[in-house]
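Appendix B. One record, verbatim.
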Amino acid sequence: MKYLVKLITAILFLQSMIVSAERIKDIASVEGVRSNLLVGYGLVVGLDGSGDQTNQTPFTTQSFVSMLNQLGITLPADAQFQLKNVAAVALHAELPPFAKPGQKIDVTISSIANAKSLRGGTLLLAPLKGIDGEVYAIAQGNLIVGGFGVDGADGSKITVNVPSVGRIPDGATVERAVPTKFGGDDRIVFNLHTPDFTTAKRVADNINRLLGPGVAAPQDATSIFVQAPKNPAHRVDYLSLLENVEVTPAEGAAKIIINSRTGTIVVGKHVRVQPVAVTHGSLSVIVREDLGVSQPGAFGEGETVVVPDSEISVTEETGQMFNFAPGPSLDDIVRAVNEVGAAPGDLMAILEALKQAGALKAEIVVI
């Protein structure tokens, strides 16, 4: 009864809230409510000559023979096969939380041998297992392949996307439910997607403001414990209420993210620079090697030889210097760098130099 009173009070409180923030369901997950990964092995048949080259992939033939034996067909031990329309594949899928037997889930199929394309193929009955080795779903159906490839007689080849991977929407049927600990305990735990002490405290404070003091308590930068009813039916209503509570997440620490492979640089809002002057320029050194001929006179006693002629030129672009005032904001940093016209590689060097000089108040993360 006390939880029912709290629910009614909370609903009235939520209706009166007019804030611009994020819901708890968008920034946190409930402990124990999670998906599970499944994996399997199977055969795709019906390919138009684009299957495995069985002389190089004996396991495809072994799987095919094993399947026929299970169907009551016995083949000679010395039988030779050229199964150009069969491919051995790996299957993987994600079992959603609370999935029940009879429900459908999507399956992704990937060639594990040398099949050129899975387009037009059909996956035969294949089990999907969890990490515990138990079968949780059975997959079968026609593949949808987004890519294709064409080979020419002269060896030329055109490939669009990846023809060796396909999907079967709703291609697997759940056969076993994963046990969960959703009910029976007197509390639930919210785990933040991005750990932060301030955000964890704000989540607990907003829940306590809604349901009363002492209902929620942060345990660390990630987890918030919340008292909850043991009855599963009441718990569903309870969570429906809590996940819609709005919280203003704390702003992240000052960071600069640098992707050295793509040249992408992201500067956080709270990045600050102490007073400092920066100059930017480039030096180009070009060395040319030419060969000259040294030939003696008509009646001279000498030999004709090749003489190297080196030419070195140095070009230095005019460096530009800009000055950062005390505590510039993100806009100031971006504007100054744009005025200099620094390329991503140059900007990385500038930021690293500022960090080494102690003028950059931020963490540089290179990914």
